[in-house]
Structure formats: structure tokens, C-alpha cells
Write a structure and sequence with these properties.
Layout lengths: L23 E4 L5 E4 L7 E4 L7 E7 L3 H11 L9 E7 L4 H15 L4 E6 L6 H11 L4 E4 L5 E2 L3 H7 L7 E7 L8 H6 L12 E4 H7 L12 H11 L4 E10 L9 H4 L5 H9 L1 H7 L6 H18 L3 H23 L6 H28 L6
Parallel strand pairs: 4-5, 4-7, 5-6, 9-11
Antiparallel strand pairs: 1-2, 2-3, 7-10, 8-11, 9-10
Helix pairs in contact: 1-2, 9-10, 9-13, 11-12, 11-13, 12-13
GO molecular function, one term: glycosyltransferase activity
Family: Belongs to the glycosyltransferase 2 family.
Organism: Noviherbaspirillum humi
């Protein structure tokens, strides 16, 4: 079967199946193929003889069949020849619900020649491990990553692949997170994903690059900092990263339970791992200094009752007032620009008191677990 890589300015979604626009495999010195499109398509290096597709889309999922169904609707509607890509769903918590959703799309796409595969992940678990299972099972020289809660736009894959013409090893697309005019604190915080340097919700990589780096570090068991770790290793190895601003995925903010920001503090454990692996880049690109404000708040919180026990009421009162002022300032900063419903205000008051001690606790857990001096 002859193939071409559709370019963003093309109009025929089946152009890749037309004769006269074929890729031509050329052996390189490593026994691999460099697939070139002579009519203006992008060059795909590192293809192997057993590869069946130009690109494989890998999506890790975990108990979110409804969101996955929405994502698959976007992935199967790409303006891209159906026979030139595959979709691999890696189920990190294998379930009948997810299997049924994927199975339905597999049957629906069979007549179009688009393969949608279900791959249960028996362990180890976590999004990093699930992505590794996915790209290792892929049958193409290019791997595209997104998440089960995204909605890729119709030209996402075309624009992302076109960016490899620049000789990059990795391509990063753009994320859009639509919000209401009065978001919650959680929603506003999630929107920072739009300006993140590198996120696995929208990136493509040559398989050879993933093999060179050993894929994702599976010690990152939660969806936190595993993409930053990959990004930093790409930088360390001097691997070129190209931008594809027209390769867009929509990332609606998922509904969250009341007080979700407290449970999210557990993720900071993996900041310790990222800092251990990349101390300089962490301070340059994540956080320049420790959260001294949190430590000071916790010091006052613990110091007030301790001073009272030691018979120093004035010191106890001073510590309590300092804690109240700093916590109040933190709460007001989180409320600024967000909705002012009674429920949300109450949530901000409670969680603003809880976040500093929880964050400090999980930082200590991370430092101990990964044996690193991390504040």
C-alpha cells in the first residue's frame, strides 16, 4: 500500500491512499528506513520494515470511559488517511466499561481501515508506565500522545506531523482549556496547562528518541511531573523540539469534587523525584525557591500551641495572629478573579488553612522516599 503524509494545507482526507504520492523507504546505515515523501510531505526517519503505519496515537486511560469515548470521537475524525495511523488505548485499570467503549470504536472504524486497539496494562501502573506500554506496542516510527480527557481537533495529527519537517525529534502542540468568566480556583489553576513548556497531553515523538531515552520514568506513578522529566531529558540530550501551534487539542477542565486541592497536594511527592534528577532545571523552570511561605505558615501553626504549653502566651498570640494573617492573605489571593459563591468561598477558606501543612508533609515524604534534600 502506498502512503503519503497529508500536509496541513491539503483538502482530501484520503490523499494518503492516492497513487503517485507514495513514501519511498530508503535504508539507512542502521538497517532502518527513512521514509520520504517526494511531493512535499514530511520525512519520517527511523521506520522499520515491520511498521504498518506512519503514526501511532497512544492514549492512557484509567476508569474514565465516558471521557475516553469523547476523545475517541475526535481521534477517529482526523483529517488523515485512515489506513496511515492507528489508535492504541492503554487501560491502566482494566475494566469492562473501557473495553466496551474501545471495542465499539474498533468495530465502527473497521470498514474505514482505521485500527483502534485495546491494550490492558497489568502493571506497573501510572500514566508514565501506561504510555510506555503503548509506544512499545506501536507499529510506526512516530508516536503521538494525548490524554483520555482531551478532544483533538480535526487537523491535530496533520499539523503535528508536518512539524517534523524541521528535523525535530519531538513536536509539541498547543492546548486550549475553555473556562467560564468566573472559574473556580481549581479551574483557573488547571488552565496553566495552556502555557506549560511541554505536556504529554499534546506531543509527538520519534520512536527512536523514546528508545534512546528509555521512554518515561515509571517511578512517576501519578499524572504529575513525568512530562517535565521527559522534557528535561530531551534538553539534556540536545534533542530538537519543534513547535506546532496549529496542532491543537481542546482540554476541558474535568469536574472536581469539593476540596480537591487538598488531595492534589500528594502530587508534590514527585516534585522531589524531579528535583533529584534535574536540580538545576527544576530551579530554573519549575520553582526558583522553596515554598518558604508554606514553611512559615506551618511554623506559626505549630509554634502557637507550643508557646502556650511553655507558658509564653504573648508569643503564642503573636504566632496565632501571624498564622491568621498569612493564611488569610493566601485565601484572598486564591479567591481573586474566581467565583464568589458561598460554597466556593467556604472551600477556599478551609483548603487555604489545610494546603500549607499538607504540602509541607508531602514534600517531606517525597524527600524521604527519594532520598533527596528537597524543600
Amino acid at each position: 500500500m502506498e502512503r503519503t503524509l497529508p500536509m496541513p494545507d491539503g483538502h482530501d482526507r484520503n490523499a494518503g491512499m492516492q497513487a503517485g504520492a507514495a513514501f519511498h523507504p530508503v535504508r539507512d546505515g542502521r538497517g532502518e528506513q527513512a521514509i520520504a515523501a517526494p511531493h512535499g510531505g514530511a520525512r519520517v526517519d527511523g521506520a522499520k520494515a515491520e511498521d504498518r503505519f506512519l503514526v501511532s496515537i497512544v492514549v492512557p486511560t484509567c476508569g474514565r470511559a465516558d471521557l475516553l469515548n469523547r476523545c475517541l470521537a475526535g481521534l477517529t475524525a482526523q483529517n488523515f488517511a485512515a489506513g496511515d495511523y492507528e489508535v492504541i488505548i492503554v487501560d491502566d485499570a482494566p475494566s469492562d466499561a473501557t473495553r466496551k467503549v474501545v471495542g465499539a470504536w474498533t468495530e465502527r472504524m473497521a470498514d474505514r481501515g482505521l485500527e483502534v486497539r485495546y491494550l490492558p496494562n497489568r502493571g506497573p501502573h501510572g500514566p508514565a508506565a501506561a504510555r510506555n506500554r503503548g509506544w512499545q506496542a506501536a507499529r510506526s516510527p512516530i508516536i503521538a500522545f494525548t490524554d483520555d480527557d482531551t478532544v483533538p481537533t480535526a487537523d491535530w495529527l496533520r499539523h503535528g506531523l508536518a512539524a517534523f519537517e524541521k528535523g525535530a525529534g519531538v513536536v509539541r502542540g498547543r492546548i486550549e482549556m475553555p473556562l467560564s468568566s468566573t472559574p473556580s480556583d481549581y479551574e483557573r489553576d488547571a488552565k496553566h496547562l495552556e502555557t506549560a513548556e511541554f505536556v504529554t497531553a499534546n506531543c509527538l515523538a520519534r520512536r527512536a528518541v523514546l528508545e534512546q531515552l528509555g521512554g518515561f520514568d515509571e517511578r512517576f506513578r501519578l499524572a504529575w511531573r513525568e512530562d517535565s522529566d521527559l522534557h528535561f531529558r530531551l534538553l539534556d540530550h540536545g534533542i530538537a523540539i519543534a513547535d506546532a501551534p496549529q496542532a491543537v487539542v481542546i482540554h476541558p477542565v474535568r469536574p472536581a469534587s469539593w476540596g480537591v486541592s487538598m488531595s492534589q497536594q500528594k502530587k508534590v511527592v514527585f516534585d522531589a523525584l524531579l528535583y533529584k534528577k534535574h536540580p538545576r532545571r527544576y530551579r530554573e523552570r519549575i520553582r526558583a525557591t522553596p515554598r518558604w511561605d508554606y514553611y512559615l505558615i506551618v511554623l506559626c501553626l505549630l509554634g502557637a500551641p507550643l508557646a502556650l504549653l511553655l507558658g509564653k502566651p504573648a508569643l503564642a498570640a503573636g504566632a496565632a495572629i501571624a498564622w491568621l494573617l498569612m493564611t488569610g492573605r493566601f485565601c484572598l489571593a486564591r479567591l481573586r478573579g474566581t467565583r464568589k459563591t458561598a460554597s466556593h468561598v467556604a472551600e477556599m477558606v478551609l483548603t487555604s488553612a489545610a494546603i500549607p501543612p499538607l504540602a509541607v508533609y508531602w514534600r517531606m515524604v517525597g524527600a524521604l522516599r527519594f532520598r533527596v534534600a528537597f524543600l
